[in-house]
Queue: 2 jobs
Job 1
Amino acid sequence: MSVPSRRLVPLAVLTLFTGFAVAIVTAPEPASASGTLRSHAAARGKFIGYAAATGPLANETAYRNIAGSEFNQVTAENAMKWDATEPQDNQYNFTGADQVVAFAQANNQRVHGHTLVWHSQTPGWVQGLSGTAMRTAMQDHISRVVGRWANDPIVESWDVVNEVFNEDGSLRQSFWLNAMGQSYIADAFRFARAADPDARLCINDYNVEGINAKSTAMYNLVQQLRAQNVPVDCVGFQAHLAVQFGFPGQYTQNIARFAALGVQVRITELDVRIPLPADQAEITRQNQYYTQIVDGCMQSTACAGVTIWGFTDRYSWVPDTFQGEGQALIYDTNYSPKPAYTAVHDALDDGDPGGDTQPPTTPTGLTASGVTSNSVNLSWTASTDNVGVTGYDIIRNGTVTNTVAGTSTTVTGLSPSTAYQFAVRARDAAGNTSANSATVNVTTQPGSGGGGCSATGTVQTQWGNGYVVQPVTVTNTGTSAITGWTVTLTLPSGHSLTGQWNATISPTSGAVTARNMSYNGNLGPGQSTTFGFQVSRPNGNTAVPSGYTCTAS
Ligand code: 9MR
């Protein structure tokens, strides 16, 4: 990453300099610190993870023991990045990535893929490509890397784009942006969805933990992309913090506003660095920051968990990047837990000694009513629990779609004339869930008013004997959801289709038909999606396609 720059907030009072020895003193495990980090996180339905460095993961027993026992989630610190996985065009190397996934598998941990499209650690051969070639390279890379684990459920999520913003909220002038324009972001998400329809797809950045210009830009972009049906499922707050700066302002409110957009929030790269030598006040502040970050995640149902960027000060990016700073993690260089470990532990621990493991009773009496072409009302009888039911998961066709507080809900966004199966289950504060209720089957009404659509194409670039049409924007102009679209258009005489994305187009000349892919056919009223294509034409010919018409299904 580029070094996060943040306003320096001087500590008002620095207590007496106490020297290095204090900073590395081993924290005795306090009375409350029983149980591993992962046992407490799991009891609350969250993950606690670490960034894995492949060297010590292969070679150091102490590292492996802590990594395997304390955490239930892992992110490869470097092994899944572009320079590691595809150093030369189409020459893939998954040695380190496979090592991390195998260790996770052996230790019952879930894996977050990091990272597909980033301005850093991407080889020169990619950076030098033209826009069209770069888009193809991006699609190939995403398909191959995400596709490698598409059928492995432990690789559950990906950072699709990383650090796309400047601090003022404008888009970073990366080689990605310069070559392809802003559409590279939406396309990266679509390519990832096509490669693994089940993976959660995230946008990740630093200095977005609090409410500020950068996090607001991220919020606006996520909102826009989702309105356009671009598959953004989660946002990552890296949380590379430093004790010499203030704690991010309005952190919990920031989580809440992203939650309201319907995306999952993840703390993806937590560490809290200290200017060395560390004094007691700085260590105390470090512990507070760890507590506050973990607490904020625990308090929000939208926050899935926290990944620490490493765990031992023996292996941390901080001293290499910030001269004179370090001790940012929760174990010291000799693998002893620090006070920061206790801070994380106690924030994960819900204070219930032994943890509540009793699930609520199974909800009964699930009924459906008020079925329309795109919605249905569900209601059921309340469950009971030894501690208290905190909500009900709504399960559509076997997948949890959302959680509600009461015993009824209106499910919206359904497609007309479509069969659905619903169930619900109860959850409690410790994350225990009941068995699924009996199911109820619903077939939505046929659409009324029809789902019309429109299509408009824009020529993005052209050269002597070819051009790229991007985007072709398909919009549902009707009053109900559509489940597919077909766009017809005419290529001028002598023109021939040479490439296409986000649609299947045939034949390659004359009147051609573009059909939606599996992932971009569903459009609610007013929603849009885009596709694109590339054409070659006789030298000197300047004609472009015409006659775009859209039919909805
Ligand atoms: O921790 C990573 C370090 O080992 C690498 O040298 C560095 C290269 O840029 O990337 C570090 O991880 C970064 C992460 O991938 C994205 N966010 C910022 C992290 C710290 O720089």
Note: The chain has a mean pLDDT of 90.
Job 2
Amino acid sequence: MSIKYIFITGGVVSSLGKGLTSASIGHLLECRGLRIAMLKLDPYLNVDPGTMNPFQHGEVYVTDDGAETDLDLGHYYRFTNTPLSKLSNTTSGQIYDTVIKKERRGDYLGKTVQVIPHVTDEIKARIRAAAEQEKETQVVLIEIGGTVGDIESLPFLEAIRQFRYERPKDCINIHLTYVPYLKAAGEVKTKPTQHSAQILREIGIMPDMILCRCEQPLSEEIKAKISLFCNVPLDAVVDEKDVAHTVYEVPVELHRQGLDEKICNMLGLKSGAADLSRWEKMLHSALHPKGKVKVGIVGKYMDHQDAYKSVFEALYHAAIAAGVSLEIRRFESDRIVENGSVEKAIGGCDGYLVPGGFGERGWEGKVLTAKYCRENGLPYFGLCLGMQVMIVEFARHVLGLENAHSTEVDPNTPDPVISMISEQKKIKELGGTMRLGSYPCVIKKGTLAERCYGKNLIRERHRHRYEFNNEYKTAFEEKGMVFSGTLERGVLCEISELADHPWMLGVQFHPEFKSKPLDVHPLFKDFIKTILLEKAPWPASPRLTTA
Ligand code: GLN
């Protein structure tokens, strides 16, 4: 049977949750036993989001093969088991980069190089590459970033029009739109949806299904109107109303309306009924928590909803697994220093997490957070920069190296406990210069890390330039720091933890990228579990208090 393709476009406004919807559809198809692949096409000209400010673009999601990708791939990872790699995210920047390189090489044999066919051909080649990534793929879901009507996304839409023209039986277009309720008029409005379907038709794309984002379920009358004006059968107008509690309800809601069955019928896909039992069990636990944990996250993009997306999700997965609800308190690290009192600024949480980050801003507030947790026996989880902060804090206040720092912030520090590995020192330009992607790590026996993972060889994903400086290793160990994870066949420190503390652990990698609600990351799981066990006060060890 030929591979089937589902193109997902968005209309009316951005931020409708196209990524979540695509991931949910992928999930439902997998629940029917189908093998899927997913691809996100992003219309911006950056080659990848790696160099974009998190305020602009939210989190950069990293795959095993080291691609810096759109955060929607995080949704794909959490909702499905599809393979994700650099083939799963393509930007206009990559497409143009390839086309221009080919032109310079003379691959176009003197032809005039144009958006159609050269750019569109390259887009189609990327879709085929995503489909061919695995032999058994049956369905490919292709999400097109942006909103129809944007100038940027036109080449992508033209490419999917052609793709379908070449495989009329194997493709469908699902258009996600917004159907607002106007309070003043007391009415639900279909006109924006009609207009965005019209734009698609002008480009030559007929939607097969309209998914309507809305606040309340749509009446049959409204659905009939959308059906008639948008030229789709009535049963192909599906509402996707706001879910009450968690995004993990979305697949269940869509399944309730028979979405997966409809898609399979349209594409002539034969499969069993969807088995959502594991997902529903997880959801039941998420919706019926018994107890609560309060975790403080100390970062520097706290006002941005999506800057630490995977971190929030991974904590939530662990809370669901522990059967409790999660309250996240967000702290801007800058303000901790301004405030003068750490206790006043961030006190009152059951545990703290310091996520990854770049640059100088916010460092000292994070150092104060690590100190506060170490001295008060409060669980501390440091991710990437969060581990580097934990190292610097320990160097300053336990080893007495008061000007210790990371060379990222202070290149002239007398004690560069975090610095670049020498071969990276020569690399000057930004973009693609980091330790990126999956690396194997050996876990030391008898450590907290071993307790969490339950094994001694793991693989985790990295995205950083700086490393622990092993010249200081012995000094740290003598004072109670345990280097519990080391790069396999290498010396780089990947995990550090405090021996005499309930849970103080930092990782040089990003475990948050590898947590799913149905496969919770072991470090997050143990962090939350320990918080629940350790709510009782803990006497600070004299050995670890400030030097
Ligand atoms: N800025 C630090 C580095 O480059 C940490 C990066 C991160 O937290 N992802 O090493």
Note: Confidence is low (pLDDT under 50) at residues 536-547.
